[in-house]
Amino acid sequence: MLVFKKIRESDWGAYHDIDIESFSEDKIEKRDFLRWLESDGFIGSYSQDKLVGYLMLRAMGDYGNLARIAVNKSERGKGYGFKLMDRAEVYFRDRNVKKIELYVETKNDVAISLYKKSGYSLLFESWHYIIEENFVKKIEEETTPTDSAEMRIQSSEDYENIVSTFPSINKEELKNHLLFHLFLLVLQRCKVILLSPFLSVKVLYESLE
Fold it and tell me: Which end of the chain has fewer CB atoms < 10 Å from its terminal CB, N or C?
């Protein structure tokens, strides 16, 4: 029997193992794990008090973001993914969320099948790029600064500038990314020429229409 409750700091080891199995190219560092502990949307699924899966959820007004869902590799095939999806929808309904959105890589057939069977539908496909922090540092170290270009990670303080430059951007999701410094901005002659989230090629699904 699965029990759902908030993730605990003592779960870091088990969480990290699941995270590496599920998101090897995009794993969460411990500092961000500790930050997520402050959120009531960081929910673990436990079997005999052992963490076997988790959800990372954000409710912002009538918009809900299913940031992550993962199940321990040794526990897959038991229907835990569907139970986690059901728990996510309970969380969002309790907060009067009207629409849930999530991203998934186009090559992740297992996850896409789970989302479709859970009632999600495709909105659109888009191209994004993975830019690792170490790569950004390497660019900074090897590139000679000039007056015409700058590259830096964005924070919540940059929200207004980004929205004014990209008025059609999803503002609620932008806030979510900025909270964890996941946007890289390239400036040239004081004008934004590239805005890239950390995600790779994704397919966006939604539910709760």
Answer: N
